[in-house]
């Protein structure tokens, strides 16, 4: 389980920003939830990787909690990164909390 937090520093709303996490193959059975601060929006829940078109108001934030199981046969290095892309012309900052970006080695 890890948490991804995206926030908008303003000055304008980020309408149509894309939050994505394609998940590496060793992560299986993923599910996630999202909660938004008032006025910002995201899809409330989903399965698999995240590909969510969102609205982030200035000062707003979104919190995703993603849970997955690691394939017991996995070996080597597992790297997972979540990304937030602003729509053209918008500026906002993305903050990753918990294990938003994960690197793990399996033996």
Structure description:
The protein has 107 residues and is mainly beta. It has strands spanning 2-7, 14-21, 27-36, 45-47, 50-56, 61-70, 76-81, 83-85, 94-97, 101-106. Helix content is 0%, strand content 59%.
Total E-strand runs? 10
* Contiguous uncertain segments of 5+ residues: 95-107
Biggest beta-sheet profile: 5 strands, antiparallel
> What is the strand arrangement across the widest sheet?
4-3-6-1-9
| Proportion in β-strands | over 45%
Shape: elongated
Number of helices: 0
Percentage of residues assigned to helices: under 10%
From N to C, what is the helix and strand string? Answer: EEEEEEEEEE
* Cα-based radius of gyration, to the nearest Å: 14 Å
Structural class: mainly beta
- Let me know the average pLDDT: 81
Question: How far apart are the first and last residues' alpha carbons, in Å?
Answer: 20 Å
Brief digest:
The chain has 107 residues and is an all-beta fold. It has strands at residues 2-7, 14-21, 27-36, 45-47, 50-56, 61-70, 76-81, 83-85, 94-97, 101-106.
How are the elements arranged and paired?
Elements: E1 2-7, E2 14-21, E3 27-36, E4 45-47, E5 50-56, E6 61-70, E7 76-81, E8 83-85, E9 94-97, E10 101-106
Features:
disordered C terminus, about 0% helix, 5-stranded antiparallel beta sheet, single chain, about 110 residues
């Amino acid at each position: 389980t890890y948490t991804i937090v995206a926030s908008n520093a303003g000055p304008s709303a980020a309408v149509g920003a894309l939050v994505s996490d394609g998940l590496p193959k060793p992560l299986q059975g993923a599910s996630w939830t999202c909660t938004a601060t008032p006025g910002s929006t995201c899809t409330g829940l989903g399965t698999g990787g995240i590909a969510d078109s969102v609205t982030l108001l200035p000062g707003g934030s979104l919190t995703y909690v993603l849970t997955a199981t690691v394939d017991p046969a996995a070996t080597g290095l597992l790297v997972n990164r979540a990304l937030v892309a602003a729509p053209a012309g918008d500026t906002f900052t993305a903050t990753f909390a918990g294990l938003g970006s994960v690197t793990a080695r399996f033996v």
